[in-house]
Amino acid sequence: MGEAAPLASVIALDRHEGNRVELRGWVYKTRAKGKLCFLHVRDGTGIVQTILAKGNVPDEAFDHAGKAAIESSIVVRGLVKKDARAPGGFELDLDHAEIVSPATAEYPIAHQEEQGTDHLLSIRHLWLRSKKQHAIMRVRNEVEKAIRDFYYERGFVLVDAPIFTPNACEGTTTLFEVKYFDEFAYLTQSGQLYMEAAAMAHGNVYCFGPVFRAERSKTRRHLTEFWMVEPEMAYASLDDVMRLAEDFVSYVVQRALERCQRELKDLERDTKPLESMKTPFPRISYDDAVKLLNEKGHKFEWGGDLGSPDETEISKSFDRPVMIHRYPAQVKAFYMRTDPASPKHALCVDVIAPEGVGEIIGGGERAIDLAFLEKKIEEEKLPRKAFEWYLDLRRFGSVPHAGFGLGLERTVQWISLQQRLSLSDEQLAAVLKEVVEVGSLDELDRMEASEIIDDLMRRAEEAGVDTSPQAGTATEKQVKFMKSLKRRAKLDDAAFEKIVEETAGVKKLEDVGKREASALIDKLLALSGGTPSKPPGERGAPPSRAPAPRSAPPARSKAPAPKRPAADAGAAPDERPPDRPDEGPADEDEDLPF
């Protein structure tokens, strides 16, 4: 066996060209060809191809290496050679290969012909090792570091907000209740209110940590647990918030582009939209946004909160994030300051990312008038006692102050642009069944239903499926996609073609009448293995469902949309892990899936 060599990492092999090194890692894939064995080894920093020739090591070691199962741990030593054909541009000519711990079972990811989301989530402890998940975590790591550097460089003080909160700020429907000794507490939705107190002590502060939302949402835009960064500034206005927000987003994106080139390449991210992003970001009022939507044929009534489809439609008119400011005060939280020039508007802003990602930031000015807040707390029927400390901030030296919240997960999703995954086929069938069990489309969360339909169309289009009535011969990619559906959702090709036919002209439930939408859902449900709903007029009462403020339907009627929770909720991230499960297995000489 080869003599000892300096320990190296895959990511730094360029520093060792022409020298022997030792790598410690895991077998990513193997291929034996006569007297040669090709081992792809990953060490946590990257993947490198190694070549083991029979005769360079004892026969027993050669045989063990050639038969090494995927994810067996291994130590190799060899000469670093530059080769433009090799992954990463370098390969190792081995003279030593030692299996440290052989994998004792078939690896449940690499040997699966198709990878369903439910399957991957059930083994997420192993899915973390896959190439794309690995890249996403590296991007997330850099984004987190950039966030902390941005605020440190600007003199902001990090103040850690508590995870347990003693009161249910705006009701308990979206808070997790926890037994706290002899009473109850709640997992926090936001650190904002605490940051307002800290800003009165330090000037400019921020918190960065986990927050929780008890929402049973099926959309790809919601999580029950995610991380949020929330800066707060004393003596600050809405304009100050918008300037900070655009500088902040630009800084984070540029850092990722600069330091995550390898990972973004692995994720197949087209970085041109990110590279062309410049400040200042375009700014439009909520009133102008409503006008823009209606001019584009996207019907929307003034007074409601913008939903996911609305944000996506607005973002199509801009080549970078757009700031929408001054929403109706009726859809904002009690603490939001109203515009002195127009009291029906709140001094707030949402930052909408392009490419269909949606809102990544929500924030604004905080109300500073004690009487105003006391009145709002009474109107909202909030527990006055729980907010006495918050009112103290207005009793003792209140000043104009403002801030916002940014969701880490959705920001990472945007930078890596992995939002295309939403529902697996099994989950789709379950969601459709739940939709009709609601009993009435009036009770249906339109945003959720719209995303279900959008998801079907998106996945068909991504698979190269011809949705026209005169579809030609199926492509190899389409056949592969059909096999995936058949395997995971028990749908044959004909059933999928019917689904495509039914959804080809309907991308949003808002585009059809209730009766037509109900019939469409029934057909999709029947094809997906569910039970058709009752005919209109025979539906039972809808089951009780807890309100979900962030997934509330955008207002398409005179009734205003529900108000947001206590947090600046622009931070709600994706529900599904950002990857694409419908990629098939790699051929022998290709990279492994995911």
What does this structure look like?
Helix 4 crosses helix 6 (about 240-260), helix 14 crosses helix 18 (about 515-525) and helix 17 packs antiparallel against helix 18 (about 515-525). Strands 6-10-11-18-17-16-13-12 form an eight-stranded mixed β-sheet, sandwiched between helices. By secondary structure, the protein is α+β, with helices and mostly antiparallel strands. The chain is built from 18 helices and 18 strands. About 35% of the residues lie in helices and about 20% in strands. It starts with 19 loop residues before the first strand and ends in a 67-residue tail after the last helix. The protein has helices at about 60-65, 115-120, 125, 130-155, 190-200, 240-260, 260-265, 270-275, 285-295, 310-315, 370-380, 390-395, 410-415, 425-435, 445-460, 475-490, 495-505, 515-525; strands spanning about 20-35, 35-40, 45-55, 75-80, 90-100, 155-160, 165, 175-180, 185, 205-210, 225-235, 285, 320-325, 340, 340-345, 350-355, 360-365, 400-405. The model is unreliable at about 420-450, about 465-490, about 500-520 and about 525-594 (pLDDT under 50).
Query: In DSSP terms, counting alpha (H) and pi (I) runs of 4 or more, how many helices?
Result: 18
Helix proportion: 25-40%
Q: Give the amount of beta strand, in percent.
A: 15-25%
User: What is the count of β-strands?
Assistant: 18
